[in-house]
Design a protein that fits this description.
Blueprint (H helix, E strand, L loop, with lengths): L4 H23 L3 E5 L4 E3 L5 E6 L2 E6 L14 E10 L5 E3 L4 E4 L7 E3 L6 E2 L2 E2 L10 E7 L23 H8 L9 H5 L5 E16 L7 E10 L5 E13 L1
């Protein structure tokens, strides 16, 4: 005896779901960044590259994140960055001066997203409990001091006004439950690296989109006292499928 029509429809739906369970993952492409040709390899547990200019060396890795959430690359592009300063100047670290650039002519620019909430003209203090960043001779920006109580003295040199428009614009990029405590704890804050000092932590860039073959991490070096630009560092990455 043949099956009722509703039973045939149900069987078809079950078959579709089963097939889809095997087929859909094959259609989802994930990507990772590896140091590109010409990038100077750097030692570490994850593939990293480095470059230097005017006494400043930057080392970066796009495969170092192992915190919560584990799926962070679904939302943003986490880049571990170490900045060593032997320029003879105090070096200012600013989110707006750090970018990931696509190939020339592509018009692709992924911007660093400050891992803090903004309310009006105020950065909402978010305690970075037990900050995991590495820092020697580093002073956080005064406007981030409330989030880094006990971490060390904030920068007491020339004042840098907070670029609230940049903070507000980028803060809207976060999902409701991001950034997580891990992201804040390991984030590199804005501030100044004294001559002979260094700082290392994560920067969170806008999400990598499919179809971009390469990205270049660019930092425009800025004297924390004179506010003058004195160099530029580029680190080249190639985007490959997993």
């Amino acid at each position: 005896m043949s099956k009722p029509m509703y039973a045939k429809i149900w069987d078809s739906l079950v078959a579709f779901v089963v097939v889809s369970a095997f087929w859909l993952p094959a259609c989802v492409h994930t990507y990772r960044l590896v140091p590109g040709p010409g990038a100077t390899p750097a030692q570490g547990t994850a593939p990293a590259a480095s470059n230097h200019d005017k006494g400043v060396r930057i080392t970066a890795s796009a495969q170092a994140w192992n915190g919560n959430p584990a799926t962070l690359t679904d939302f943003v592009l986490p880049i571990w960055v170490q900045i060593e300063n032997k320029s003879g100047k105090d070096l200012w670290i600013s989110y707006s001066r750090l970018q990931m650039l696509g190939p020339e002519g592509s018009g692709v620019t992924l911007r660093a997203i400050p891992p803090f909430k903004v309310s009006g003209k105020t950065i909402v203090a978010t305690t970075a409990a037990n900050p995991a960043i590495e820092a020697v001779g580093f002073h956080v920006a005064p406007y981030l001091g409330p989030s880094y109580t006990g971490f060390g003295d904030p920068w007491r040199g020339i004042g840098f006004a907070t670029d609230f428009e940049y903070y507000v614009d980028q803060a809207s990029y976060w999902e409701e439950y991001l950034p997580t405590p891990d992201m804040i704890r390991w984030a590199m804050p804005e501030g100044a690296v004294s001559n002979g000092g260094k700082v290392a932590g994560f920067l969170y860039f806008q999400k990598l989109k499919a179809g971009i073959p390469s990205l270049t991490l660019r930092d425009q070096l800025l004297d924390a006292n004179s506010r003058e630009a004195f160099g530029q560092i580029d680190i080249f990455f190639v985007v490959v499928k997993r």
